[in-house]
């Protein structure tokens, strides 16, 4: 798959997230103050939004690459390392979905899926003898050219918006 196709996929996913976020912002949402036992869930919800914002930052391609970058790896080994890191981060935070809106959790899932797709697509376009540094360079080049439709930024804005609504 060429770079134009990847760009189209990323732009489409970003548009879908933006539309979903717009729909969520304009719909009325029940704000749970206390559950039936009188327990205030707001602090747990705010903490969940905070953790998901950190997750979104950690799996953003540029941050992920700078954190897991290792010299001497093949492109395939680096691809697997990047994918495994995203999976671990996601699984570690999976329980937070019970405290956030379905839209927020879906945005996180789409960010994870998009970044894994980009890593796989860019890695597939690499020559068989490519090294991990070249893969990282290509991924960073791709990330830098996608500023306008950066799903990571859209997800962070949606999480921030929802957390602020909860604090009112």
Structural class: mainly alpha
Give the overall average pLDDT. Answer: 86
> What portion of residues belong to β-strands?
under 5%
In the predicted model, the low-confidence regions spanning at least 5 consecutive residues are none
Number of domains: 1
> What is the N-to-C order of secondary-structure elements (H for helix, E for strand)?
HHHHHHH
Instruction: Provide a count of the helices.
Output: 7
The biggest sheet amounts to: none
Q: Helical amount among residues, as a percent range?
A: over 70%
What is the radius of gyration? 18 Å
Strand elements, count: 0
The protein's oligomeric status is: single chain
Shape: elongated
Distance between the first and last residues' Cα: 46 Å
Attribute tags:
mainly alpha; 168 residues
Task: Give structural notes.
With 168 residues, this protein is mainly α. The chain has one domain (3-22, 57-161). The chain is 73% helix and 0% strand. The protein is built from 7 helices and no strands. The chain has helices spanning 3-26, 42-59, 61-68, 75-92, 102-124, 132-145, 151-167. Helix 1 (3-26) packs parallel to helix 7, helix 2 (42-59) runs antiparallel to helix 7 and helix 4 (75-92) crosses helix 6. The longest helix is centred in the N-terminal third of the chain and has 24 residues, at 3-26. It is elongated and about 60 Å long. The N and C termini lie far apart (46 Å). The mean pLDDT is 86.
Note the topology.
Blueprint: H1 3-26, H2 42-59, H3 61-68, H4 75-92, H5 102-124, H6 132-145, H7 151-167
Helix pairs in contact: 1-5, 1-7, 2-5, 2-7, 4-5, 4-6, 5-7
């Amino acid at each position: 798959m060429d770079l134009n196709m990847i760009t189209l996929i990323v732009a489409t996913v970003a548009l879908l997230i933006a539309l979903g976020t717009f729909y969520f912002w304009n719909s009325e949402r029940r704000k749970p103050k206390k559950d039936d036992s009188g327990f205030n869930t707001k602090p747990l919800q705010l903490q969940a939004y905070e953790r998901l914002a950190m997750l979104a930052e950690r799996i953003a391609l540029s941050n992920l690459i700078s954190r897991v970058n290792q010299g001497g790896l093949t492109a395939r080994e680096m691809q697997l390392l990047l994918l495994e890191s995203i999976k671990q981060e996601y699984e570690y935070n999976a329980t937070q979905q019970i405290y956030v809106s379905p839209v927020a959790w879906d945005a996180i899932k789409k960010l994870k899926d998009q970044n894994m797709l980009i890593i796989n697509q860019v890695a597939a376009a690499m020559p068989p003898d490519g090294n991990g540094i070249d893969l990282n360079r290509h991924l960073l080049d791709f990330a830098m050219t996608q500023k306008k439709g950066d799903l990571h930024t859209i997800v962070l804005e949606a999480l921030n918006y929802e957390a602020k609504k909860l604090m009112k």
